[in-house]
Amino acid sequence: MQKDLQLNSFESGLILSIFFISYALMQPIGGWLTDKYGSQKNLILSILEMWIKRIERYGDRI
Fold first, then answer.
1. CA dihedral defined by 6, 10, 15, 19, rounded to 10 degrees?
2. Apex CA 23: angle with CA 59 and CA 50, to 5°?
3. Which residue has the higher pLDDT, 2 or 43?
4. Whole-angstrom distance, CA of residue 37 vs CA of residue 26
5. 47-62 pLDDT per residue, tens
6. How far apart (Å, rounded) are the C-alpha atoms in residues 44 and 38?
7. Quick one: CA torsion of 47, 19, 5, 57, rounded to 10 degrees?
């Protein structure tokens, strides 16, 4: 991956660190939402949110 994106070790480590920190911060929130509303509702809302954001960003290209 580093060669394909032409990243040095520091940049690669920074990208991975940001991903893992954001993942760790969102885990408790996702667990709480799943306990409160159920997994099926959370999955449906997550998919809808993903598509809405995609349409907002790339809507002019559709």
1. 150
2. 20
3. 43
4. 16
5. 999 999 999 888 877 6
6. 10
7. 30
